[in-house]
Structure formats: structure tokens, C-alpha cells
Amino acid sequence: MSNHTSELSRRRLLASGTAVSAAAIAGCIGGSSSDGEAFHYTQEQSREDQYDPIVSNDTYSFQVIERVFDGLYEYGEGLELQPRIAKGEPTVERDGTRYIFEIKEAATFHNGDDVTAADVAHSFTAPVEETTENAAEYNMIESTEVIDDTQLQVDLGDDPYGPFELTTMGVLVVPKDVRTDDRDKFNRDPIGAGPFKFSELGDTYVEVEKWDDYWGDLEPNVERVRFEAHDDNAGRVSSIRSGDTDVISEVPNKDWDVLKNEDGINLHSSKSSTYMYMAFNCNEGPTTNPEVRRAIAHSFSMQSFIESNAGNVTTPMYSPIPPVVNDVWEFPEEEYRDMLPEYDPDQAKSLLDEHAPDDFEPTILTPSGLRAQLAERIATRLDSIGYGADVQQLNFAALLDKYHTGNADDYQMYLLGWSGGGDPDDYLYALFHESQTGATGNQGHYYEGSDSFHDDLLRARNMADRDERYEIYDPIIREIVEQLPVLPAFTLDNTMASRDYVNDLQAHPDSATNPVFVSDYANVSIE
């Protein structure tokens, strides 16, 4: 069995309450695209301003990147992949360990160079060869072989890699020669094969412009798009209400109804591939006992919390698999929901009285925002049955340093979030496999699990057949829901608000794909 066990990218850990993979703007006249000014899209957070997809590890930069670069494949309206630069589906050989891709001959980069198999090969292999933070998404590739300019062979090694098609195959394609000639310049002034060209990098904004010679069938209706960061919720909401921006991302829960009832504004929402959860310390201390974990889950109502604090912008979760991914795989979500502990403070107290120390007052680590509110709700409910909790709100870096210790003196629970793609491996392997534990991994908790738990996670990863993987994943999910090493909380919806002169804007489940300006199913325009 091949060792597809290496560390996954930690960029998918959610520091804030935002969906990972996203962009923004403020301060110009709404609808000005029709006058030749840029269409304004206001993001929730600042970017790292790295625009080379080989090295960029920042959600908000990727919203710009996705406009400039075309992928070998791309997401359709959901989390299903469809060909873009690829001519069609790949030929799969050697029991799922060899993929042969054919590239559309018409595909060209912004500088007029043809997109070749060598460019695609470089896009697949450079993250590992250059030891970038994205390496783990590609290190299952053993070798590539350029058959000719339009055909590429990719070999995965001795065993298949189940998530390859949904997680890796949609690689964004870069021009090898241009990129390697001056990587620093390419990172700040990239050349892609997408419908928009990189135009301007300002201190607070990025602009892209329509590429008139785009090789594909799609032609954007908007001429230019300006992405500008505005991480103040009140400021973003004010800018859309006043018409100073065309679209804002991530509508705050408390402002949803205000904007919904305001003339001249439309709201857009989609479930996302994010997973917010509370993890228990399964390494040491009282929470190593599943009865204590179950008691805490009984002590408060997750549904009530969501309805009162985030009902407009979140969707409840009942397993480690976000609902939008569950829609693709058709796991029995209702059965998982029925397995979770219901709100029952009497049962919570009874279990804690029997299984927890008399002075049990767990420490909960949390970032700010919605998850801090959830931590406070849990502490309040535990206090009402005679226990309580110590909520420690930390910045993201401090939280990561502390939760990686696994020490009961540091915490019994922590609240974090994760964002993946359309494959269960993105969530199950990343957050539960033993290789992902500790200071270099994505999880601070270690859950030993049943005898075959970790072996099964690896076995499913090294299989190509989706039905066979499903049969492995279902009992793994049931064990997690029953034993509660983590308690699923909610998925953050991808939300936007736009002025009513913006037509055909749709929210996509993948945050990096938003805003979708031009696609087979949507083409944004301005009245």
C-alpha cells in the first residue's frame, strides 16, 4: 500500500468565521461598470497578495486567481468537476493509478502562447518540487510524462489515490516557461489562460480585466472587476446600502433581514464546503471518556444556538461531512442526525456526576466571532447544571500553539473550522487520521478509534472505486458521530449581497469559485 499519509495543507483551517477559499471591495459608484469603471466586489478580509497558484495559500487571493487562471477541470454549479482546459474526461488505466489527459488545442495563455502538456505537467509537479504549502495536494503523483503537446500521462504510484479526481485533478494551469523565468514577477503579475487578465495591483485593491481574445466559448459581460478588502462588517454593509459597491461577500447574520427588506439590494446564498466543529481532548483528561463528551453534547442545544445566532448564514451539520458534499455522496445524513445527543440537561448532569470529576470545569479554546459565542453558550449551559467552563478566546496563532499540545491542563475542548472539496477524505483523513496529529498536523486531538479506524481511513484513500470507498466511510462516520471525538456544529453558507442592477449573480458552494462572473450557468452583467 502506498504511503499517501503526508501532512495536508493547513490553509484550510478556518481562522475566522469565514468560508475558506474567497474576495472584496469598497468605495466607488455602484453600477459604474457600464461607464467603463470597474465592477466592484468587496471582500471580507485582506489578501496576502500572492497570485501564483503554485504558491498562494490564501483564500482571498484565490478569488482573484480563479478569474485569471483556467483549470484543467473546474467545478460546475455544485462540487462536480467538468472539463475546462481538458478536452474531456481522462483515460484511466492501471487500476486507477494512471491518468491520461488530452488538452484542447485552442487553449492559449494571455501572452498568446499555446497551453501545452508540459505546462499542465509543471502545474501538477511544481508545488512538490518547490516544497510549497500546497505540496500535500499533489504529492501522490509519482511521475508525469509529456506524450506530445496535447497529451499528458500522470502516474500515481502503486496504489490509487481516491481523492485525486475531486481534489487534485482541477489544477489551475500556469505557463511553465514564463513562470520559471521570473517567479517573483509572476507572483505579482501573473499570466493565465482564464477569461480575465491581471490588470492592476494597488495598495488596497486588485483589478482584473476582460481578455478579449479568450480562447474559450465563454465571454464575460463585465469589462473589469475590482477586488478590494474591507474586513469591517459594518463598513461592508454600509457600502452596499449606500451604493458605493456593487457586491459584498459574507453578509453578517444580524444584517441579513435588514438587507433582505431594503429596496435595491438582492441577497445570494449557497451551502458551502466548510465544517465548523468542537473537538474534544481525546489525548488526556476527563474528555477521553466518551460519556463525558456525550454529556457535554446533551448540555446545550446546537439547533437553538444556530437559530438565535446564525440562522440566516449557516446550515446545521450532523456529521463531519458538510451537507453540500453529502449531496454528492448521498450518505444517510438523517440517520447520523438521529444518532447525535439531543438537548437534555438532566441527562447531561447525570452523566457528568457519574463520569467527570466533582470540580470539572473544562477549558474551551476558541477564536473570536461566532465560535466564541458558541463557547460561551456551552459554558452557560454547563454552569446551569453545576459545572461551568473556562472560555479562552485566542488569536488564531496562539490557539494553534496551544491546541497542538494535547495537554489536559491546556484544554478539554477547542472550536475550529475546516474547508475542503467534494471528497470525504478532505475531512475524514485530514482531521482524524493519526498522521495528522500534533504540532505539524491539522488536529490537536488524537482519537484512537476502533481497531481498524486509522487503517480504514488510509485504505479508503488508496482506493479508486467510489462505491467501495463509500462502504468504508459510512461506518467511520457513524463511529465519529457515536463516539464524538468532535461534535459537528454547522457549515458557513457562502453569502453575497448585490445591488439590484447586478444580473445573474449566483453563490457557488466553493468559496474560491465565488464570485462566478462567467460560466455555463451564469454570466454577470450590469443593467
Automatic annotation (TrEMBL):
GO terms for molecular function: peptide transmembrane transporter activity. One of its GO terms (cellular component) is periplasmic space. GO terms for biological process: peptide transport. SUPFAM superfamilies: Periplasmic binding protein-like II. CDD domains: PBP2_NikA_DppA_OppA_like. Residues 80-437 form the Solute-binding protein family domain. InterPro entries: Peptide/Ni-bd, SBP_5, SBP_5_dom, TAT_signal. Keywords: Signal, Transport. Transmembrane segments: none annotated. Pfam families: SBP_bac_5. Belongs to the bacterial solute-binding protein 5 family. This is Family 5 extracellular solute-binding protein.
